[in-house]
């Protein structure tokens, strides 16, 4: 091989190596840019999930307290000659108790999400 051929081969090899490192640089930039963005989003999601967890917990506690009052309200209404079905708050409480079971499932999912991160 001539010196010129060897020189061309070395130059070509350097260009290939530079192109490969440029590819790595771009891929690294893409990776770290995306993971930085994802981490910010995850922090926001965790914050929102914790807020939702607190609110759902409070709602479920209220529903549990309603559950213990429903029979008392129904009994008192009957003693007063009032049809319990005509008491809006009583009907709303029954609806809240039914929907609270769905929120218990949501709460369980949120807790799993929080603990998995």
Overall description:
The protein has 117 residues and is an all-alpha fold. The chain has 2 helices and no strands. The chain has helices spanning 3-79, 88-116. Helix 1 packs antiparallel against helix 2 (88-116). The longest helix is centred in the middle third of the chain and has 77 residues, at 3-79. The mean pLDDT is 90.
Write the layout of secondary structure elements.
Elements (H helix, E strand, L loop, with lengths): L2 H77 L8 H29 L1
**Number of structural domains:** 1
Number of E-state strands: 0
Helix content: over 70%
Please give the oligomerization state of what you see.
single chain
Shape: rod-shaped
Q: Round the mean pLDDT to the nearest integer and report it.
A: 90
Q: The biggest beta sheet, please? A: none
Report the structural category. mainly alpha
**For the CA atoms, what is the radius of gyration?**
32 Å
Low-confidence stretches: none
Order of SSEs: HH
| Proportion of residues in extended strands | under 5%
Distance between the termini: 60 Å
Our count of helices gives 2
Summarize the model shown.
The chain is 91% helix and 0% strand.
Labels describing this entry:
about 120 residues; 2 helices; single chain; mainly alpha
